[in-house]
């Protein structure tokens, strides 16, 4: 027969484990919300600032600038049809990623893999919001490079997508025990 202390401690251990999982999920959802809010807030600030003064802001010489670029097409300005087609394919892709994220969140999966997925989803939602709500397309404003060698302008949503994809790829290739 089981003593009350063992039953109680086993139950307590199970509750602690559940609380730890809930904290991880809460943290992931908090990062998700913060990425979307930071992305949309920064784009609104940039749009208002550059409406008054279109000159770029040189943050670190010419290596890091704040600029204003409207991109009605795909990533890095890639074009595969009219802008409405980009909005439609972005919507469908974002919807699929969103379903996969929430389905995966409730499965036993790596914290970093889930975090990466939700960062990709948050970035996709941030850019999709631009395509739907702003007439000029996605607002990009971070410009980095050396001299005339520049990377494509990007935004917080793009950075979140990139970081999230790297996390997801790295931690998808590892066994779950290695990353817990």
Largest sheet: 4 strands, antiparallel
Q: In terms of per-residue confidence, which ranges show pLDDT below 50 for 5 or more consecutive residues?
A: none
Query: Helix- and strand-based class?
Result: alpha+beta
Give the end-to-end Cα distance, rounded to a whole number of Å.
Answer: 34 Å
Shape, principal axes of CA atoms: globular
- Kindly report the spatial arrangement of strands forming the biggest sheet: 1-2-3-4
Beta content comes to: 5-15%
**Share of helical residues:** 55-70%
- How many β-strands, per DSSP? 4
Mean pLDDT: 82
From N to C, what is the helix and strand string? HEEHHEEHH
The DSSP helix count reads 5
Radius of gyration, in angstroms, nearest whole number: 21 Å
What does this structure look like?
The protein has 180 residues and is of the alpha+beta class. It is built from 5 helices and 4 strands, in the order αββααββαα. It has helices at residues 4-52, 83-105, 111-133, 156-172, 176-179, and strands spanning 57-60, 64-71, 138-146, 149-150. A 4-stranded antiparallel beta sheet has the order 1-2-3-4. The longest helix is centred in the first third of the chain and has 49 residues, at 4-52. The mean pLDDT is 82.
């Amino acid at each position: 027969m089981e003593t009350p202390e063992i039953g109680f401690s086993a139950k307590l251990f199970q509750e602690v484990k559940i609380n730890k999982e809930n904290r991880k999920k809460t943290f992931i959802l908090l990062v998700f919300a913060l990425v979307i809010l930071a992305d949309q807030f920064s784009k609104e600030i940039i749009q208002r600032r550059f409406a008054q003064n279109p000159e770029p802001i040189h943050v670190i010489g010419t290596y890091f600038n704040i600029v204003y670029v409207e991109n009605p097409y795909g990533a890095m300005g890639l074009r595969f049809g009219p802008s409405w087609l980009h909005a439609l394919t972005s919507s469908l892709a974002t919807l699929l990623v969103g379903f996969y994220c929430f389905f995966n969140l409730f499965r036993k999966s790596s914290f970093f893999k889930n975090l990466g997925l939700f960062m990709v989803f948050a970035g996709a939602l941030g850019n999709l919001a631009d395509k739907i709500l702003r007439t000029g397309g996605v607002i990009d404003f971070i410009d980095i490079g050396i001299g005339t060698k520049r990377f494509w302008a990007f935004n917080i949503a793009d950075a979140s997508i990139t970081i999230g994809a790297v996390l997801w790829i790295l931690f998808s290739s590892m066994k779950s025990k290695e990353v817990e």
